[in-house]
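Fold Annotation — chain and its backbone
Encoding — discrete vocabulary of local shapes
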Amino acid sequence: MTAADPAEITSAAELEALLGQPGPAAVNKGRTALHAIDVEWIAHSPMLLIATSAADGTCDVSPKGDPAGFVRVLDAHTLAVPERPGNKRADGFHNVLSNPHVGLIFLVPGRTDTFRVNGRARLVRDAPYFDALAVQGRRPVLAMEVAVEEIFYHCAKAFLRSKLWEHETWEPRALPSRAQIVHALERHDEPLEAIERYYGPDYANTLY
């Protein structure tokens, strides 16, 4: 190894020697059934991230958002996440078909802690609860049911370090607009003006 090479960690023993051992509270915080507090958290969450992995190990993380409480708690061990119209890539859903293991992170705006659910997923095209998942009169395209295997809360450190909810630190206009990104990377042959119209005020009318 030269002075310019990274000092790679290649074993669990090296990792644990560097980070140390977790305390009893961290080791034992995982649970297997939803508590009333968890159900309340899900009811207040308008956004979650879903991590999946295909059988070959390739990974995907997809954001899902809707009015707060859009994820339905079917019972203390099962959740249902509705799917709305999208671009039809369905990368995460293809992964679930070959490897059902999923990880979910539920976010609540302004809260610096987050709620994690690990479990096994299956896709359903219809179920008796689909009517309750309708938004603006539109039932979901499908739902991903998640059988809970492990749940716990993440502490606030990542959000405190990033200052994610401190709006005075936000600089959204420091980056190219959504239309500019699409024009540069995805739809080179379309006029920027046409893409800007697509992502203009009427875009919100296409959500459901």
In short: The CA atoms of residues 138 and 208 lie 6 Å apart.
